[in-house]
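Explain this record to help learners:
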Amino acid sequence: MSLNFHQLLLFYTVAQLGSVTRAAKALRISQPSVSTQLREFEQRQGVELLRRLPRGMALTDAGRVAFAHAQKVFVAADNLQSALDGFRKAETGRLTIGGSITAGEFFLPAVIRTYQESYPRIDLVLALHNSSEVIERVLRRELDIGFVGMADIPAVLATIPCWRDEIVVIAAPGKIPTKSVSIASLSSRRFVMREAGSGTRQQVERTLRSHGIELKTAMTVSSPEAVKRYVMSGVGWGFASRQTIAMEAASGHLVIVEVKGWSCFRDFMVVHRKDQILSPAQAKFLEMAKEL
């Protein structure tokens, strides 16, 4: 036997207020409708729940049991509504973000700090991988959204530009000529390169191909920090986001090589599945990311 929750609400309200008239007014429905629904509810359950008195109503023993359970049902319903309202207003929940290593280490910290100040009850999870792996995890629905620095993005993903980044040529002090070099001369140098799947590497290779240049690789590493360390140690020249080497360039530990004809920029994109409806928490994060 299934409960009619509309009738349960009518019963609960009448029992709370002690009168069909007051319940009808509170629920904004007619008094005859309340009385009819109450009778149908008792008939469906096969027990008398309310005893009609000359003035008002009184609960029977069965009615007191029904009222106690109904109270738990509607308290739980209120709690459910509050929880859903929290998600709708981006006040609670969990947000899983993927970031390429450059995005995650140098662009996202400021976004996350600002977001947490506004939405402290959102549980943020950040996973750092190269751009290709971030895209794969978004496709597998393991991440809600991802921030990547590559142009080759599957058509099933929606893309939104967030930041523009410049990739520069770097070297250790004392390892560069006293004046600028030509872009063609890069082919005679050995470079510390990021791994396959890195957005930085993909953009560098795309720029070099446009000039018909192939590079010699001294070694391959898996993070921007490793590129800086091995370039500083003199293993070879490298390519890095201007943003990521600002401190080392200012302190003199790295030098940005002036290369005639070199122009390498990339847009960091936020990606999510096109069939995904963004939650308020996700939409707010994207909005802040674009602003910052």
Remarks:
- The two ends are 57 Å apart (CA to CA).
- The first strand starts at residue 50 and ends at 52.
- The chain has three domains: 5-88, 93-163+268-291, 165-266.
- The first helix runs from residue 5 to 17.
